[in-house]
Amino acid sequence: MTAPATVAIKNLRIALPKSAERPYAVDGISLDLRAGKIVCVVGESGSGKSMCAHALMGLLPDTVDVTAGEIMFEGRDLLKLDDDGWRDLRGRRLAMIFQEPMTALNPLMRIGDQMAEMFEAHGLLTPRERRARALALAREVGLPDPERIVRAYPHQLSGGQRQRAMIAMALALEPAVLVADEPTTALDVTTQAQILKLIRNLQRNRNMAVMFITHDFGVVADIADQVVVLRHGKVVEEGPAATVFSAPQHDYTKALLAAVPSMDPPARAPLDDRARAVEVIGLDKTYVTSGGWFREDRRVDAARAVNFSILKGETLGLVGESGSGKSSVARLVMRLIEADRGTVRIGETDLTSLSGKALRAERHRIQMIFQDPFASLNPRRKIGHIIADGPIAAGVDTKVAFDRARDLLKMVGLDAGALERYPHEFSGGQRQRIGIARALALEPEIIVADEAVSALDVSVQAQVLRLLEDLKARLGLSMLFITHDLRVAAQICDRIAVMQRGAIVELTPTAQLFAAPEHAYTRELLAAVPGRKEQAPAA
Amino acid sequence: MKQFWKSMLKSPSGVIGLVILLLAISVAVFGPMLFPNSPWRMVQRPFLPPFTLSTVPLGTDALGRDVFAGMIFGARVSLLVGLVSTLVALIVGVPIGAMAGYFGGKVDDALMRFTEFFQTIPSFALAIVLVAILQPSIYSIVASIAIVSWPPVARLVRGEVLSLRTREYVQAAVVTGQSNSWIILREILPNALSPVIVLASLMVATAILLESSLSFLGLGDPNLISWGYMVGAGRTVIRQAWWITVFPGVAILISVLGLNLIGEGLNDALNPRLSREGR
Amino acid sequence: MLSFVAQRVVKGVIVLLAIVVLNFFLIRLAPGDPAMVMAGEAGATDQVFVKQLREKFGLDKPLPEQLFIYVKGVVTLDLGFSFRQQAPVAKLIGERLPATLLLTLTAFAISLALGVLFGTFAARFAGTFLDTAITVFALIFYAMPIFWVALMGILLFSVTMDWLPSFGYETVGANLTGPAHALDVAKHLIMPAMTLGLFFMATYTRMTRASMLEVKRLDFVKTARAKGLSDAVIQRRHVLRNALLPVVTLAGVHSGTLIGGAVITETVFAWPGIGRLMYDALLQRDYNLLLGVFVICSAMVLIFNLITDLVYRLVDPRIEFAS
């Protein structure tokens, strides 16, 4: 604790442009980074955490202004540096990695050249030596087949490989400070676990000071030495990781920790001898990208012999990483895309045999809640229409449909005034409630929720999950719940199906899946969930 | 809507463009009423320089016709051809693009091959050939300009529809049992409109340029005076009478500039770049 | 890469054939007897010539057969005979093609080079006086009809200042050879090429500026700054290279407009290329020649498009793999 701080941020205040919701993005923040320690700066969206990171790199957007404070590093106040001063420090003493490694790499340059630029920027080494160092770095961060990778372009790498390349680049000149801005948010859990481990190892070996920005308490639990919790640009709590997790002081921290779903599935009553609501038999779907006249077509299996059924009143979870085909299965079940083979039965009706008007007439029985609250509502239609359009199309009287829309809004916790307003007037959580109301308006038997809470902040996520559970129980619905988040799945599902490369590898009751996973891939997924060792205390 | 006008009036290019367009439209509509004289009639001696007689402020051409009167009547032809041919191009291009984008697959393939074919043909050369073969008239001019300008509309609309079709709110409309036509008309097209409006304003400008070029080459409607025709007629006597070519050209320049500025203003107002990042 | 070229060439040939078929129907769309139409206003009075045409194109045979004969003719590069000029259309075009290529390629090179240069400056100094000045000039050039620019150029540089010749490809009767001849042609080329290039220069300026400002906001530019690279390197290597991609696409799209502009430019400056030939055909209602030039123009556009596509593939590594 007494070691001198490598970086000392004191009373930093960053002003937002006048049109913004609040005057300061960051309002009087102080924090220290120390060599060999990882400081996690945690907060929900809009907390100002990313601004802090950018301020430390001198990469703030032009629209904001630092109005007060200082950032001391190696005896200098960084905020007083001129352009040349910054240029000298960036890359050499201060390095940064970003959230989205695809867009953070220049698509037209080879990976190796982008690494070599690090040395070139500071006039180090000859071009030949730079290439050799790039290769060595690629090897050090564990990139497979480094000779090939340094010659590859960003689009030829996977997400995890790109982030490794970014890390290699950042570490090239052995900087004293590494700033990591949500570096694993765009990655799958298993990849995230590997990248976190890599950062941890490299940081220890090189005794770097790390500022790690994240919204995910699981990640914090895995990696942080020190935790700083931000809210609306202010520090609400700060302390060693262990202390913050075991004895959070501030109510906001407590609420955030409580909102993180636990890995312990709650006990659920068995759902035997119930009728089947949905039955999916042998669904196959292969996407073929035509390679043109002279090249082989590319085939991706989105679904391979997918079988499952959902009982009345049951929630079936479909979990998997990106590209596992879980969203495709949701859309196949909804008949938003057509299966190559297989049957989807709702009750006694074979949905896959219908088309045109007959299909439209049955669609009301199975409804969907979408992932992105900003893309799932037509920006040019009023909420009332968004909810009532479906029933009206099904022949319900307009007035009746709007009355029902009003009731539904109340049911999902919004007031009736929302009917006359447009989507942009609502927050993400509120929009997701509107999406739920739209799905319920047609009085479905089954709800398909596709990553329905993934885009929401944890606190909002918890509320929406509660609402879904409550409505499901009250209306006796069945649910197909698609998620990449095993914690969420643990809380809401009766049974869970794990998908990998288009196939279901394991389908068991939730408790059993967490207690005794059978398939190797399931075990891998469970092991990768961040923050396993630190269980959030019950609120 | 209010919001739209507010941001439109905030952009300087939009305001200047609107002023120019309003001016041009009022000249086209009311000008001929104030100048009842036919622009084809000889009013003064030939080659009368501008600013010598107040009744003929911009001088006369080689046949003693009033250059100013010609410009005022020409405004009507230019704007009319610009607007009508753009409208026709939209009527052709929007449905083609919407169908290609929405239905995809073979429909898309067929429609897009067709569109690409028209797009690869050099547009001005095709317009020349079409007008020459159909015989120059206001109808053949409008038709050939429309024929060469609809492909970009179809491609733009297709692209928009293609990306909107996978939006979750469109999928939501599908799963709530809406029909295809309802989805295209209510959910997709209203959201694809802004870039089409921007393109349309630029297309009017291009159409005016095309019309003037055709008239310049002697492919204008022989019964209607137009700016391009005037420049073309003054070309051979440019050494003696610069004003015959200069003034109508300025008129073309200003109207096209105005429409391009409106396009920029519309673009700023309808597609605010920061709206997406703001969330 | 080779398979891509083959694919595109085959596609181009198909499009070209379709254009020829379109031509065939256009002739029949014109009011009057196709033989008369093809003969043109001057030739239609010559009964012998009209009769020859009838036989050659089998105009008394059924339509599909006529189409076959017509397409076969074009494919074997027999574009017909111009009665007015008393020469085969293919020969007339062949003689004029080099002048058009010289004009359009020069104009293209000038417009691209200057457009990218000005666009880069405008983006680099966005919001300053320089940016405003470049933007305003680009807007004005973008709105000027080419024929008017040409005439204003003549008025200014030939009539008033007497710096540059106002028409033709070379000084008539001077019989210059070697470098003197080249210089003479260059002098004649300046105004037409600048006239034609001005509009496209404005287009590329606007596109480069917009595209650079767009790319500047992308994440990888932030990465480059985080490396401590100098501003000049970031602009050149990271911003400009990415920003040029849409400019290349635009160059391809605009090749047709370039040819159209050449028709006007050549007409005003009496530049002996196929554009001027088209205008002559137009004046004399020599439809056979008109359509012949039209087919050749289309072929040029197709070739130019193919080249820009190839260039795009060379610059953007993502295309080859993502196709």
From TrEMBL, chain A:
Matches recorded under InterPro entries: AAA+_ATPase, ABC_Ni/Peptide_Import, ABC_transporter-like_ATP-bd, ABC_transporter-like_CS, Oligopep_ABC_C, P-loop_NTPase
Major location (coarse): membrane
PROSITE patterns: ABC_TRANSPORTER_1, ABC_TRANSPORTER_2
Topology with respect to the bilayer: Peripheral membrane protein
One MF term in the entry's GO annotations: ATP binding
UniProt function note: Involved in beta-(1-->2)glucan export. Transmembrane domains (TMD) form a pore in the inner membrane and the ATP-binding domain (NBD) is responsible for energy generation.
Protein name listed in UniProt: ABC transporter ATP-binding protein
TrEMBL record, chain B:
Keywords, alphabetical: Cell membrane, Membrane, Peptide transport, Protein transport, Transmembrane, Transmembrane helix, Transport
Domain of life from the UniProt record: Bacteria
Membrane topology listed for this record: Multi-pass membrane protein
Location(s), subcellular: Cell membrane
Gene3D superfamilies, per database record: MetI-like
Domain ABC transmembrane type-1 per the UniProt entry, residue ranges: 75-263
Cross-referenced InterPro entries: BP-dependent_transpt_permease, MetI-like, MetI-like_sf, OppC_N
Transmembrane segments: 12-35, 79-103, 124-150, 196-220, 241-262
UniProt similarity note: Belongs to the binding-protein-dependent transport system permease family.
The name this protein goes by in its record: ABC transporter permease
Gene source species: Bradyrhizobium diversitatis
From TrEMBL, chain C:
Occurrences of domain ABC transmembrane type-1 (ranges): 97-312
Transmembrane segments: 12-30, 101-122, 134-157, 189-207, 243-269, 289-312
Keyword Transport: yes
Membrane protein topology class: Multi-pass membrane protein
Primary localization: membrane
Compartments, record wording: Cell membrane
Keywords tagged on the record: Cell membrane, Membrane, Transmembrane, Transmembrane helix, Transport
Keyword Transmembrane listed: yes
Domain of life, per lineage: Bacteria
Pfam families, sorted: BPD_transp_1, BPD_transp_1_N
Protein family (similarity comment): Belongs to the binding-protein-dependent transport system permease family.
Name of this protein: ABC transporter permease
Organism: Bradyrhizobium diversitatis
